Hints:
The chain is an alpha/beta fold and 487 residues long. The protein has two domains: 2-229 and 460-483, P-loop containing nucleotide triphosphate hydrolases (Rossmann fold), CATH 3.40.50; 240-444, Class I glutamine amidotransferase (GATase) domain (Rossmann fold), CATH 3.40.50. Helix content is 30%, strand content 26%.
Amino acid sequence: xxxxxxxxxxxxxxxxxxxxxxxxxxxxxxxxxxxxxxxxxxxxxxxxxxxxxxxxxxxxxxxxxxxxxxxxxxxxxxxxxxxxxxxxxxxxxxxxxxxxxxxxxxxxxxxxxxxxxxxxxxxxxxxxxxxxxxxxxxxxxxxxxxxxxxxxxxxxxxxxxxxxxxxxxxxxxxxxxxxxxxxxxxxxxxxxxxxxxxxxxxxxxxxxxxxxxxxxxxxxxxxxxxxxxxxxxxxxxxxxxxxxxxxxxxxxxxxxxxxxxxxxxxxxxxxxxxxxxxxxxxxxxxxxxxxxxxxxxxxxxxxxxxxxxxxxxxxxxxxxxxxxxxxxxxxxxxxxxxxxxxxxxxxxxxxxxxxxxxxxxxxxxxxxxxxxxxxxxxxxxxxxxxxxxxxxxxxxxxxxxxxxxxxxxxxxxxxxxxxxxxxxxxxxxxxxxxxxxxxxxxxxxxxxxxxxxxxxxxxxxxxxxxxxxxxxxxxxxxxxxxxxxxx
Length: 487
């Protein structure tokens, strides 16, 4: 298990690295995180939902993703409530206070332990990931992710400490000392992550860390650049561009309050023909030739935010001025005439007028559509892939002057296109397909990009990540710890 001194210390990326390293070394690893909280999710081949981070880790391990890798997924609806996804299916919305109380926790504990047992019967070793800080002693009795899960699995625990944020000695020492004596014995090593500068300057620090904590330091991993691994959640958007740039086609992604599946834009962000940035004001939005309304965990709330900030008027004006407007999932719903929530899926029952850019209406419902899909697109046609995760059904108005955006391999018509510069789709991942990106950029006189296949690109990134981590960790000590019978 990779446990952390806090959130965002790099556990997820290191777990992906170990999945790839173990695969390279002849093992059959699989990732596991008992409970994840994220708006960035993915559809498994069976049509169920898990956290995107575990799907990325499975990809690094070279295996299909499965709900057993992330049996509990919390998708925040607001600051206080989340949709609870159990074994890939939504089971309702819960307030944070109620969810983290003792009542009902044993049922969740049993579910995550059963998922781990099924996974461990198929793969070896299992690369487990903790959540947040491993030392939240106020949550110890209700914890189903960190040390209680390590105890169930009989796992060796490696503590990940982020030196970039400061206080690395105190955070590592405190995380270890706040464990029970039994759990403290499980922590077999420390990984210091996100180091910047000359590693030689921390050689004394390694010795001091080991002396203070009584646990060996497995290595110091430098902060890396030039390796592209999908981020776990939207906290990482803070460092993204927020302004247009001259010399390229500017693509603005509207920074919704409940933005989900922001990894939809990873490939487009690296396309040299465009400059992709995130916009949260009308003035910034006016700088873009192409505007994308992304997915949302709360479509109606985000529609109201668009109106309140003047962003809705700015999007409509962009369409009137001949610029491109595209919606994905919740963004597609917003582009229609109306979004209705008669069952209160997103809170209280209500209906909200949309932007009116597409002749469609959406009715939200409790049944969630989750599946991977394929379709042919472009000239010549190429095989493309995407996935759906949404709670709602969108239908054309009668006598609508628009056409479906594409046809799926099962014959289903999908999405809506008013014309080449106004369209919407439920498909996440659609912008990972070069033929569709070329279609989107076609009106701006850009030649097809060609180049490396995106799947091959990601495979190369996992190898680069594995090489980076290998160089800075004592892998002999790592395997020695894993092969020891001491627990």
